Amino acid sequence: MAAPLTNQKRDRRTKPAPRWCTDQSTRAGGRGEALALRPPRGVGGARRGLMALRRALSAAGRRWAQRPCSAAWGDTIFALSSGHGRCGVAVIRTSGPGSRGALQSLTGRPELPPPRVLALRRIRDPATAEPLDRGLVVWFPGPQSFTGEDCAELHVHGGPAVVSGVLRALGCLPGLRPAEPGEFTRRAFRRGKLDLTAAEGLGDLIRAETEAQRRQALRQMEGELGQLYQRWSETLTQALAHLEAYIDFSEDDNVEEEVLSQGEGWQGGGGAGTPPPCCRVPPPATASPCSLPAVDATVRALEQEIGAHLRDGRRGELLRGGVRAVIAGPPNVGKSSLLNLLCQRPAAIVSPVAGTTRDVVEVALNVGGYPLVLSDTAGLRDATDPVEQEGVSRARDRLRQADLVLAVLDAAAVPAEPAGLGAALGSLLPPTTTPCILVLNKADLLGGDGGPLRDACTRGDPLPPAALLSCKTGEGLDRLLELLAQQLARLCGDPLAGSPSLTQSRHGLHLGDCVAALARYGRERRRDLGLAAEQLRLARRHLGRITGHVGAEDVLDIIFRDFCVGK
Q1: CA 209 – CA 215 distance, rounded (Å)
Q2: Which ranges of the chain have pLDDT less than 50?
Q3: What is the pTM of this model?
C-alpha cells in the first residue's frame, strides 16, 4: 500500500475532472476549443466560476463577431483604381473568387500568367469577342494579395472609352459587381492584412499633399502605431492574467507568490524584443498575496506612458489636417494682400477702403513641407455696420480656434520701441497660449531702411518672432516664410522621430477612456479585486477598438467611406 501524501502541494495537472463543466466547443480559426469551468466551492468558488464563464462567453462573442460574412464575401468586386479622366495608363482591379474566371474571360485564354508577373494580353469583351484594348494583366492569387483574396489587375490605356468598355465587360460577368468606396481596403482588414490604424494610414497616404504628411502616413500604414497600441494591449493582458489568477486560485489553491512577481518576464511588446524600461516591472521586494506589486507597478507604468502619448500637443492631428493659421489685425493694414502674396494668386479682394473683407477667406498652403490652412479675416475694430459686425465676430471666433496667429500691423503707424509694439499687439487680443508671428507690413513706406523698427523686431522678448514686410515689393517675404516654417515644425514635429503620434480624434478618445479605466483600477484595487480586474478589461477593450481587434463594426463605415472607389 502506498504511503499517503503529506505536506505536499497538490498537483493541478492530476486534478479530477470538474463536476460542473460544459463540453460545448466554439470554432475559431478552424479549431474547436472546449470550455471547462471549475466547480464552485462556497461563495468564492461561485464568484470564480461566474467570472470564468463571463470571460469565456466574451471571448466566444469576439470570435463570432470577427467571422466573415459569407454572403458579403462570396461575390467579386471590381473598380477603376487609378484616377478618373484621361491618362496614359489606367488600372482596373478585381478581388474575390471570380477574379480567375474574369481574367480568363477577358483575355480569352484558359491559362493564367505566372503570379505577380506582368503579361501582355489582348483584352476582349466576353459577350461579343470584340477587342477592347491591348494591355498588361497581373494575377495575384490569395492570400498573397492586398485583400488576401484572389485578385487581378488590368493595365489598359487611360482613355474614357477604353476604361468604360472594360468596366462594362466586367459588369456583364456573373458574380461580379462594382466595388463600394474603400471596399478593397475593408476586405484587407477583414482578412487580417492590416488593422484599422494601418487602414487609416493608407487613407492618409492617398490624401497626403506635403512631404511631412506623406512621411507620417507611410509610417502609420506600415504598422508602427498599431504595434505600439498592440504592445500596450498585451501588457494589459499579462497584468489581467496575473490578477485573475490570484482571484481564481488564491483562496483555496495557495498560488505560489512567484506567479504574482514575474514582472521581469512579461512581454509587453508585440513579439519584437523586450518592452521599454517604462513597462518592465521589477519583482517586488516582498511578495505579499494582498499587495500584488507587480500588477500595480505595470498598471502605473502603462498609465504614465499612455498619458505621455496623449500629451503630444496634437502634433499628429495638426500634421494630418493642417495647421490652422489666422491673419488678424486692424482694418486696412494689408491682411488680404498678405494672403494673396503667400498663395501667389488673387484669392482675396484688395481695396484701399477699410473694412473690405467681411467673411473668412481660406486657402491651403504647403510651407516647408508642412500643411498650412491660412484664413484671412475682417479687420478688428468696433464696427457700427451690422454686416461688418458679423465679420468681426467671425474673425474673433477664428482667432480663438487658431493654432497659429499672424498678427499684422502697419509698420508706418506703430512705435519703434518694443514696449509700443507689444501694446499694439495686445490690442488685437490674440489668445495668450497660441503661437504668434508679428508681421509689420508696409515696410516700403518707412524712411531709410527702417532701422529702429527692424532692431526692435530682432530683440525678441517680450515680442513674438517678427518680420518686417512689404506686400507691395515682396521685401521680407523670405524672413516671414522662414518664421512660418519654424513655427510649423515646432507645432507638427518630425514625423519620423520618436514614437508615432496620434493622428485621429477617435484614438485620443479611446486612449483617454483607457487611462481613466487604469486610474479607476487604483481606486477599486483597495476595495474589490474583481472590480479592479473589470477596469483592466475595460482599458484593454478601448485599446482593441483603436486597432479594430474589439468592437470594430461601429467605426468601419466611418473609416472607409472616404476612400476612393478603387481602394
Answers
A1: 11
A2: 1-44, 46, 50, 53, 57, 60-72, 253-291, 551-552, 554-555, 558
A3: 0.72
Furthest-apart CA atoms within the chain: distance in Å: 116
DSSP letters, 503-526, are --HHHHHHHHHHHHHHHHHHHHHT
3-state secondary structure 323-368: EEEEEECCCCCCHHHHHHHHHCCCCCCCCCCCCCCCCCEEEEEEEC
For 138-145, which contacts have Cβ atoms below 8 Å and span 24 or more sequence positions?
138/113, 139/100, 139/103, 139/112, 139/113, 139/114, 139/115, 140/115, 140/116, 141/115, 143/191, 144/115, 144/116, 145/95
User: Cα-Cα-Cα-Cα dihedral of 217, 221, 225, 231, to 10°?
Assistant: -170
- List, in sequence order, the alpha helices (H) in 208-350: 211-221, 224-253, 293-310, 315-321, 335-343
Please tell me what DSSP assigns to residue 474. Answer: -
Three-state secondary structure call for residue 407: strand
Rounded CA separation 328/408 (Å) = 6
CB 437 within 8 A of CB 374: no
The closest alpha carbon to 567, from 117, 158, 294, 179, belongs to 179
The residue type found at 539 is: A
Q: Which residues contact 382 (CB under 8 A, 6 or more apart)?
A: none
Q: Is the bond leading into 143 cis (omega within 30 degrees of zero)? A: yes
Are 361 and 375 spatial neighbours (Cβ–Cβ below 8 Å)? yes
For residue range 145-171, what is the model confidence (pLDDT) as tens digits?
Answer: 999 999 999 999 999 999 999 999 999
Side chain identity at residue 2, one-letter code: A
**Grid coordinates belonging to 95:** 478581388
Beta bridge partner(s), residue 362: 375
Helix residue ranges per DSSP H, 384-493: 386-401, 418-426, 451-458, 477-492
Q: Around 538, how many Cα atoms within 13 Å sit in the side-chain half-sphere?
A: 16
Quick check: helix, strand or coil at residue 218?
Answer: helix
Question: Strand 370-376 and strand 323-328: pairing?
Answer: parallel
Closest CA to 73 of 203, 192, 186: 186
Q: What order do you get walking across the sheet with 370-376 strand by strand?
A: 361-367, 370-376, 323-328, 404-410, 436-441, 466-468
What's 260's DSSP letter? G
- What CA–CA distance (Å, rounded) separates 442 from 473? 9
Query: Measuring CA to CA, which residue among 533, 520, 526 is closest to residue 50?
Result: 533
> What whole-number distance in Å separates Cα of residue 203 and Cα of residue 218?
10
SS3 405: strand
Region for residue 82 given its phi and psi (left: phi exceeds 0; alpha: psi -120 to 50; beta: otherwise)? beta
Instruction: State the Cα–Cα distance between residues 178 and 6, nearest whole angstrom.
Output: 73
pLDDT digits (tens, 9 = 90+) for 179-237: 999 899 999 999 989 899 999 999 999 999 999 999 999 999 999 999 999 999 989 98
